[in-house]
Amino acid sequence: MKRIYAREEVCIACHLCEVHCQLAHSPVSDPVKAFNKNIPPLPRLRIEERRPITFSLQCRHCEEPACVESCLAGAIQKDPETGIVTVNEEKCIGCWTCVLACPWGAIRQDNARGHIVKCDLCPGRDTPACVANCPNGALVYVEGGD
Amino acid sequence: MTKTIQVKYLIIGNSAGGINTTEAIRKIDSDGSITILSDEPYPAYSRPLISKYLSEKRPLEKMLYRQPDFYERNNIEVILGKKAQKLNIAEHEVELADGTKISWEKLLLATGGLAIIPRMEGTEREGVFTFITLDDAKAIDRYLSQLPGGTVRAVVIGGGLIGVSVTEALVKRHVQVTIVEMRDWILNTMLDRDSADVVAETLRGAGVNIITGRSVTSITGNQTGAVGGVILDNGEPLSAEIVIVAVGVRPRVELAVNTAIKVNRGIVVDRSMETSVPGIYACGDAAEAYDFIYDQNRVTPIWPNACIGGRVAGQNMAGVPSECSKCMGMNSLDYFGLSVVSAGMVIPPEDGYEVLAARSNHDIRRIVLKDGRVVGMVFIGNVERSGIIRNLMKAQVDVSHFKKELLAENLNLAVLPREIWEPHFAAPKTGDREGERVTIGK
Predict the structure, then answer these.
(1) In this prediction, does ipTM exceed 0.85?
(2) Is B240 in the same domain as B255?
(3) Which residues form the domain of B405?
(4) Alpha-carbon distance B70 to nearest alpha carbon in chain A (angstroms)
(5) Model-level pTM?
(6) Residues of B (368-427) whose Cβ lies below 8 Å from A
(7) Each residue of B198-223: b (16+ CB within 10 Å) or e?
(8) What is the C-alpha to C-alpha distance for residues B323 and B327, in angstroms, rounded to an integer?
(9) Taking the domain A61-118, which CATH number applies?
(10) Is residue B210 within 8 angstroms of chain A, CB to CB?
(11) Domain membership flag for residue B337
(12) Which residue, of A57, A116, B66, B328, has the greatest Cβ tally within 10 A?
């Protein structure tokens, strides 16, 4: 399946991928409204950083996802067709077992809302928002292994 | 006349282990007949959510582990509310209480665990409960609802995961709870003492009374014979209207005892989740499966292992060899707003282990090493990157030369050696423009 990969050598940790991830997952598309009038959603990615290394990290949508197998509520599922691992936020009880299970620490705790958030590869877009909006081309969305 | 039903795959147990087994089977064998048999009357629900039922009356529809059409969509026959009575291994048959017989080609025993009830006076009294099933939660709810007004006091016997879970639900129902834990600290199978003290502090902050190093010797009655309190082993009496026995679960092995299936504490399985009888598998709380951190078979009654074991059992049952080689104990909890995770061997059993520990405000990190490899971990407070450490443990990476980084406040993949993350995150170097490495500034 297509996954998001990093070109760490050209990432400058500008955090625009975070901003565009938040915007893409906001109920409104206007950035001013999304960030000033509402509480924006948590970014579903992270910036890993230990200079000179920086890169943007998203869920790997693993072949045998540890998060799915660990989920106490049955809230995380891997779509058998697309391979995309998604969470049903209404079903998630915020036990954080998947947070401990994920080998990459790619799952985020939304403490305010009591559930996890994770990368969903931006359903409805050809290219995930973080990839499409990286000014340095430091993210690519291509076929690749786990 | 009794009837015999013939199925290819018979699954006894309709929870995490059973469901994950059937899902794994269906990925390989789309039409072999599957029957799930359960003595519970409900479609598969998330057992850990029974605390939500008790605290907020979460309806069953919102506790379902899979979509309501799961059985139909996967072409699974499901027999609910009926108990398997007896296994006849030579005939490949199980007998139900009503005389029905089901014959199998492959059998899975995912019968779960039963609450341990210590031998003491008064356990049969009205107002004494366990907390394992939805019916347990319903019974507690009904009992609380019919108690006369005024403050209700509960004694929870056992400060393990189930004890703390029921405690939180009861506190949300405005019940005044006292936990009585026999050992010196609560949550002692998943936490070291220092870590457990932080949880205990949070519980006390929520009004919970915790007594450690004491056990309950009897449950006393009120004038009607229902629960009136308990007596501790130092003779001290505690008044209570309700008692929850939460000292642990034991594997439910009764179908397997006195058969050719090897039973130790649980039903003994190899790494393919097969019992000593070929064609018969077991997983979940009923099983005693391989734990790679301890390098031995152990009973680890936790949800994720039931799911992993179920997947492995299902693959093997459907003819695709698979092994459960990296199973370990792991727990995560969030009670009263405090996040706590633990995995592996948290308390070193002997000399020769190294413990890395860091503490700042409410954040605790504890990492146990053996020969340079992570074998145990606890994170309290900020747990978001804890999975990175568990992955190092699972992969048995030698961390000796970067162990200090594991305690770094900004723990992230970039602080770890490149070979750990690069193969998974770096853009494939394909030669076409999209994935090509570019050099800037040279």
Answers:
(1) yes
(2) no
(3) 345-425
(4) 12
(5) 0.92
(6) 379, 383-388, 390-391, 394, 410-415, 418, 421, 424-427
(7) bbbebbeeeebebbbeebbeebbbee
(8) 10
(9) 3.30.70.20
(10) no
(11) no
(12) A116
